[in-house]
Amino acid sequence: MISLTDSQKIGMGLTGFGVFFLFFGMILFFDKALLAIGNILFVAGLAFVIGLERTFRFFFQKHKLKATGFFLGGVLVVLIGWPIVGVVLEIYGFFLLFRGFFPVVVGFIRRIPVLGSILNLPFISTYVDNASEGNTMV
């Protein structure tokens, strides 16, 4: 089992609550307050889990500046009070930021009994493999 420091445990809790508030804010018709709280908790939790320096290095790499701009711009737009536009910007930035992790996630999901058999179906497998490699054409 992986041992976590106390600050990483706090970060996991903050990130979990952030995701909960983001999800709950979207369920309640893009409630501005819940989305703003979720954004703040998610980013703070990420900083606690991987550390401030590594968080800044991750977000501000030269090839990720566009993605960081969309993600943090979306957070800012939500805080200003336009939740739907902000969430769209955040989702786009999130996918740009974390697209390198998607093949790892797909590989992990393929080992889960029910979901793995669904992802290995021929028509889904072709699409998922192309999407996880970064190809947009099927």
UniProtKB/TrEMBL annotation:
It is found in: Golgi apparatus membrane. The chain crosses the membrane at residues 12-30, 36-53, 65-85. May be involved in fusion of ER-derived transport vesicles with the Golgi complex. The gene is GOLT1B_1. It is a multi-pass membrane protein. Pfam families: Got1. Its main location: Golgi. Belongs to the GOT1 family. Keywords: Golgi apparatus, Membrane, Transmembrane, Transmembrane helix. It comes from the Eukaryota. This is Golgi transport 1B.
